[in-house]
Design goal:
Blueprint lengths: L8 H4 L5 H19 L5 H29 L2 E3 L4 E3 L1 H17 L15 H18 L4 H20 L4 H32 L4 H10 L5 H19 L7 H8 L2 H7 L2 H19 L3 H23 L4 H22 L2 H26 L22 H4 L1 H15 L5 H15 L3 H27 L17 H16 L4 H14 L3
Helix pairs in contact: 2-3, 2-5, 3-4, 3-5, 4-5, 4-12, 4-15, 4-21, 5-6, 5-12, 6-7, 7-8, 7-9, 7-10, 9-12, 10-14, 11-15, 12-14, 13-14, 13-19, 14-15, 14-19, 15-17, 15-18, 15-20, 15-21, 17-19, 17-20, 18-19
Length: 502
């Protein structure tokens, strides 16, 4: 007869669960409030969401302090893993979400923000992403991934335009395929090692000297395809431009930042131990994916006539650029990944927020889409402040000094050079030069072309609400003055990455 096992609460270390449970409990609280007292003003849900994310941020700070003192923390039967990567990525996830939420107060005509379900789903999504990055258990990663994805599909469809429904269906279809690939890849690794924890999988494969290398290849290919969909890596990117176009501009900006950092962290945990084990074919595959993604996305962006689709392809190119860190696999490269993504968050959130204030219900004659280049023609005459701010974000995305993303690009390229990836560093620099063309193209339209006939100058920061002005101003300040906190930020990031053993 089996003896009962006594498990103390202290041994479970439930503190590791706290940051993920906060948004989930908050989402349930919003639904309960709506159940008992419906039709509350959306400002209540905005403030509640910000409060919940603020509490989440406080728990993350406490987790960071514990990690600094004690190193990596395991909890809940060792399925929860709080290390530097988990803490850094959660800071980005929660921080970017706190910047996104106030945009709900910016436009009355976007009806999805009137629903409490929007904010509940948004918090469920954040909880899912946090579970993804705070574990190395493949099942829990899958649960977090699907929790976040199912909420995100619904949030896109709630925009309630024809293209929004199309975007949600495309994203759902591609996401289901990615989930299938992830499940099959996990099954292969479990069959090979008898474990679903990435750390133990690495130990077993290394102990067996990768004797079943062909099956490892099959598992890795399925995992690469799964993360290729989530990170919109070429050739798995096909959904991204259409989904970005069908989403609201704010949601598109959010999708370009938060889901990707979660996927990057999981990919880092999974692929870097394989690369460091000297599996050459994986390095070759990743090298090809990085180069093709950067190059092809830039070429496609060059020929776009819609600014939002251009920014979608731009985000794909940036994802390829950052994926190089996983290929390089050094502490400097992994630190560069987080630095780049933090600086990219400022710039890209600002860019999409500028599109957010310029949406029109009815397209004027001669304008083929909601955000065509022609719409921005001569904007310096109709809305000089908006034109200047948009130009600032474009110059940063192009990687021009002294703006934020220049430092991210330089640190990423220098990490490639330090690790003897000289050719890769040259390709990255060349792609940055190509990308500058389509960013500068928008600036040319705004500053050197005449306004479109019938333009009413509706793209204006001065007409925006206070919350939107605040977010755009915060993004602009971060983009301009990032260099002032660069050393402090790098020291903070490197301490957490190095402390995790990456």
């Amino acid at each position: 007869m089996l003896e009962p096992v006594n498990i103390s609460l202290e041994s479970l270390n439930l503190m590791t669960l706290a940051p993920m449970l906060v948004p989930i409990v908050g989402a349930l609280l919003i639904l309960i409030i709506d159940f008992f007292k419906s039709e509350q003003d959306r400002s209540l849900y905005v403030m509640l969401s910000l409060l919940i994310l603020g509490i989440d941020f406080i728990f993350l700070i406490e987790s960071a302090e514990i990690f600094t003192e004690n190193g990596t923390i395991m909890g809940v039967f060792d399925v929860m893993l709080i290390d530097g990567l988990a803490i850094l990525s959660q800071f980005i996830i929660v921080g970017a979400s706190m910047l996104f939420i106030p945009l709900a107060l910016s436009q009355k005509r976007f009806h999805e923000f009137s629903y409490p379900e929007f904010f509940a789903l948004f918090l469920f999504m954040i909880g899912g992403f946090q579970f993804m990055v705070a574990t190395d258990n493949l099942i829990l990663i899958f649960v977090g991934l699907e929790t976040a994805s199912l909420a995100l599909y619904t949030l896109i469809a709630m925009h309630n335009r024809d293209k929004s429904f199309e975007a949600a269906v495309k994203y759902f279809t591609m996401g289901a395929l990615a989930a299938g690939f992830f499940s099959f890849g996990s099954m292969v690794f479990y069959a090979l090692t008898g474990s679903i924890e990435i750390n133990q999988i690495a130990q077993v494969l290394q102990a067996n000297n990768y004797e079943n290398i062909e099956f490892v290849l099959i598992g890795v290919v399925f995992m690469l395809a799964s993360f290729g969909f989530k990170l919109s890596i070429v050739p798995f990117h096909t959904w991204a431009p259409d989904v970005y176009e069908g989403s609201s501009a704010a949601m598109a900006g959010y999708m370009s930042i938060v889901p990707k950092i979660a996927a990057f962290v999981v990919a880092m945990r999974l692929f870097e131990f394989l690369i460091q084990s000297g599996i050459i074919w994986l390095e070759v595959i990743l090298y090809a994916l990085v180069v093709i993604t950067m190059t092809m996305a830039n070429i496609w962006a060059l020929v776009q006539t819609d600014v939002k689709r251009m920014l979608a392809y731009s985000s794909i190119s940036h994802a390829g650029f950052v994926m190089a860190a996983i290929l390089i696999g050094t502490t400097q490269a992994n630190s560069a990944l987080f630095l780049y993504w933090i600086l990219f968050s400022f710039t890209n959130l600002g860019s999409f927020s500028m599109l957010w204030i310029s949406r029109q219900k009815n397209l004027p004659a001669g304008q083929s889409s909601d955000h065509s280049y022609n719409k921005f023609a001569g904007m310096v005459k109709t809305a000089p402040i908006a034109a200047s701010i948009m130009a600032l974000f474009m110059l940063s995305l192009a990687g021009l000094p002294p703006f934020a993303l220049f430092w991210g690009k330089m640190y990423m390229i220098s990490s490639a050079v330090t690790a003897d990836f000289i050719v890769l560093a040259l390709i990255m620099a060349l792609n940055s030069a190509i990308a500058a063309y389509y960013y500068l193209k928008l600036i040319v339209y705004m500053f050197m072309k005449e306004p479109m006939k019938g333009s009413d100058g509706n793209v204006s920061v001065t007409n925006a609400t206070l919350s939107l002005k605040t977010i755009i101003g915060f993004a602009a300040v971060g983009t301009i003055f990032a260099f002032l906190i660069l050393n402090t930020l790098l020291e903070f990031i490197t301490a957490f990455v190095y402390g995790s053993g990456y």
